[in-house]
Design goal:
Elements: H1 2-10, H2 12-31, E1 37-38, H3 48-59, E2 67-73, H4 81-95, E3 100-104, E4 121-128, H5 140-152, E5 161-165, H6 167-201, H7 204-228, E6 234-235, H8 237-266, H9 271-299, H10 306-337, H11 345-350, H12 352-355, H13 358-369, H14 371-386, H15 407-419, E7 428-433, H16 441-455, E8 460-464, H17 475-483, H18 485-491, H19 493-499, E9 506-513, H20 519-535, E10 544-548, H21 550-584, H22 587-613, H23 633-664, H24 667-696, H25 702-734
């Protein structure tokens, strides 16, 4: 650090110029990063749901893997000629697009599940060509524009409402809303953050520097994510993580450095000397803290899921950039500015009360006299908050999963309200493969038994497949139909293109769930169907049956992550403990830090369950009720993030305690001094993180809400109960054992070292 500090101070103008150039080059890429991010989750290992998708792509000439659902609502029934013209014209316009394979509508295949009871609302499906299967969501904007242009030219168009929904459209709207929320939250948090910084520093110039570092960190990191997307698929979650962490970490680290620089200046050092000394103290703490945060993100690279792995990459980038900015750009700027950072001086005098350590000194003194009482009370509070964690349920949330107010969500709600077949947008898809022709008398009875068994589940609404062409069709009629497969295809072309492969050896069954079935309940249906397939269906022993679709894919993702979660937790705990042991040369300090951080994480999860899963107070965040489950990605990401971010305060606090102990060799005195000196900095830094994370708790995407809420609560617990109460209480109780084996000193009979 000494060599780096001297280098930065010596070449300070060059370093500033280089960072300005980097930021200028980064901004254009950062502005377009949402274009290269994926919305849909996917495991990086082969899963059953992925096999289903691949079988459909390989076996069918016109596979319905992805489709746009176009909802049309009009003032008259669809049987009337004006309405028919609207539907037919829009269908032809959709088929005219090169990425649309074919269209299935009520007019072409009268299916009661595609029209409302009053026949004023209908839906048609536009299947996306397999050549565009890699990123179908990107076609949404163009498809909507095409339909809107076509509708505008038709007579009476203003009386009809046309909405595009379906899997790709829902994914596109989630990505769009996530991008908008990230940019909006970044802007609205800057004002309260600036207020906290002005209060903390008592100077406008000193307050502006951390904000500049935070903005630079976000811009450079998003540009790096854009570049990284060419080598690895990146999830839309990266946008939220980079924005949150870039602001929080960049500003927090800068707050620590600027605060220490001012301390050194107040001791009479020159700007260059103060910058070097700041690098050797606060800069060292920033590097240590940053490395611990990087450990948390690094463990996410071990997970086999695109979301978590890409967040790990994004986190590594933004923390690395934030640390580099804090130990290069910031000290270089401070060495140039010197006392200018205190401008205006009158403001510092007005806000001097905030920095007076009197109250914190009294608190530190009380803690030194009553450590057991403080520890007991805080443990009771943390235990009460953590209790709901034991009732956590992992799964897809029941409600509010897709952002409200978007075209795709409104369209899905319209289908549910008027047609009653929301489940058709995200059906459970079953593929059946055999070496013989499936649509024959050999398998027909078995296919019907399988279909009846699935329909026996009250959570299932309908089943579409080779044995379910239309309701009430007899076995004899099916035998006659399948006796001449070519003629059958000519009679029902859309059905056979979707559900029976050209060679007849692969079949598809779509299981539509009842609208009363939650996403969590849908996962249970997938488990039942897979159990049914594994157990064998009479007459289909030689047929391979696989279950896929959105729900099945989410279940595969969940099981993969839960399998890796113990490894992630174990690695984060072990590596963090080792790094702290090296940094502070103390076994007890490293163990205590890991335990204390675990308490803040557990408390955050407990409140997450209480507010989101159970819905207690969820209305404050725009929830319509309890989600009944927590999305599996949330606990994985929150643990990896919180454990590193909350360790910032542990490192800041312990660094000052260690400095004081090295100087005085008195544990109680060092603990009190470290607490009173860092308390205002830690509370200010925590306030900034809470503002940043708390803002995301009001996002329109539920996953971002869960993460923002959990992170904000964890930081709040960490900066209050954990760092200001429990850590110093334990330090007082442990006495001289805090610094073993790095410091070997005898016990002081006057309680100097205990």
């Amino acid at each position: 650090m000494t060599a780096l500090a001297r280098f930065v101070v010596r070449f300070r103008f060059l370093i500033i110029a280089l960072w300005v150039l980097v930021a200028a080059l980064a901004i254009p890429r950062a502005a377009r990063v949402d274009e290269v991010l994926r919305t849909e989750g996917r495991s990086l290992r082969p899963t059953e749901a992925q096999r289903v998708t691949q079988i459909m792509l390989d076996s069918f000439d016109r596979p319905t893997v992805n489709f746009m659902a176009v909802v049309i609502s009009g003032p008259i029934p669809i049987d009337s000629q004006p309405y028919r013209n609207i539907v037919e014209t829009l269908g032809l316009a959709a088929e005219g697009e090169p990425y649309i394979d074919h269209v299935v509508s009520y007019l072409r295949a009268p299916d009661p599940s595609m029209v409302s009871d009053d026949k004023r609302t209908t839906v048609f499906l536009a299947t996306i060509h397999s050549d565009f299967a890699s990123n179908p969501a990107s076609l949404t904007l163009e498809f909507r524009a095409r339909l809107n242009r076509t509708l505008a030219r038709l007579p009476g168009a203003e009386e009809y409402e046309v909405l595009v929904t379906g899997g790709p459209a829902l994914d596109f709207d989630v990505r769009t809303v996530t991008s908008e929320d990230a940019k909006r939250n970044e802007l609205i948090t800057l004002i309260p953050i600036a207020g906290v910084l002005v209060l903390a520093f008592g100077a406008i110039v000193a307050a502006v520097l951390p904000i500049i570092v935070g903005v630079f960190a976000i811009s450079c990191s998003l540009a790096a994510v854009h570049i990284a997307s060419t080598f690895h698929e990146m999830s839309v979650f990266v946008l939220t993580i980079v924005t949150m962490v870039g602001l929080a970490v960049g500003i927090d680290y800068s707050l620590l450095v600027v605060n220490r620089f001012r301390e050194e200046m107040n001791r009479g050092q020159s700007p260059r000397e103060a910058a070097i000394r700041t690098m050797l103290t606060a800069g060292q703490a920033v590097v240590t803290s940053g490395l611990i945060v990087i450990v948390g993100f690094g463990t996410l690279l071990l997970t086999p899921i695109i979301e978590t792995r890409s967040v790990g990459i994004g986190g590594l980038i933004v923390v690395t950039v934030s640390v580099l900015l804090t130990v290069t750009l910031l000290p270089a700027s401070l060495a140039i500015m010197g006392r200018t950072i205190d401008w205006p001086n009158w403001l510092a005098r007005r806000l001097a009360w905030y920095h007076k350590p009197t109250a914190w000194e009294r608190w530190a003194r009380w803690l030194s006299q009553h450590p057991w009482r403080a520890l007991t009370i805080s443990m009771v509070v943390v235990g009460s908050i953590t209790w709901p964690l034991f009732f956590i349920k992992i799964g897809l949330p029941t409600r509010d999963w897709f952002p409200s107010g978007t075209e795709s969500t409104v369209g899905a709600e319209l289908i549910e309200r008027e047609i009653g077949s929301r489940g058709a947008l995200l059906p459970v898809r079953m593929t059946l493969q055999s070496s013989d022709r499936l649509v024959s008398s050999t398998y027909l009875n078995a296919l019907r038994r399988l279909s009846d068994s699935i329909l026996a589940d009250p959570r299932v609404s309908t089943v579409r497949g080779p044995a379910n062409i239309r309701p009430g069709m007899s076995r004899i009629a099916y035998l006659g139909l399948y006796g001449d497969l070519k003629r059958a295809r000519e009679r029902y072309p859309d059905f056979f293109d979707t559900y029976v492969s050209p060679d007849g050896r692969t079949a598809l069954m779509d299981v539509t769930l009842a609208d009363t079935t939650s996403y969590t309940g849908a996962m249970d249906v997938v488990r039942r169907l897979r159990g049914l397939a594994d157990g064998g269906v009479g007459g289909l022993e030689s047929v391979e049956i696989l279950v896929g679709g959105f729900i099945a894919s989410s279940l595969d993702l969940q099981e993969d992550l839960l399998e890796q979660l113990p490894i992630v937790i174990g690695l984060v705990l072990a590596i963090t403990a080792i790094m702290l042991l090296i940094a502070f040369r103390s076994i007890l300090v490293s163990i205590k830090a890991v335990v204390m951080n675990s308490l803040s994480v557990a408390g955050a999860f407990g409140l997450l369950v209480l507010v989101f899963q159970e819905g207690i107070g969820g209305g404050l965040f725009g929830l319509s009720g309890g989600t009944e489950a927590v999305y599996v990605v949330t606990p994985v990401l929150v643990f990896a993030l919180v454990f590193g971010l909350s360790m910032d305060y542990e490192v800041f606090l312990l660094s000052r305690m260690k400095e004081a102990f090295d100087r005085t060799h008195k544990n109680d005195l060092a603990t009190m001094e470290g607490l009173s000196v860092t308390a205002s900095v830690i509370t200010s830094a925590a306030a900034i993180m809470i503002i940043v994370f708390g803002t995301f708790a009001f996002s329109r995407v539920l996953a971002a809400q869960m993460m923002g809420f959990s992170l904000a609560v964890a930081v709040l617990l960490d900066a209050t109960l954990i760092r200001m109460v429990m850590v110093p209480a334990v330090m007082h109780i442990a006495g001289r054992w805090n610094w073993w084996p790095g410091v070997r000193l005898p016990a002081d009979p006057e309680r100097g070292i205990e």
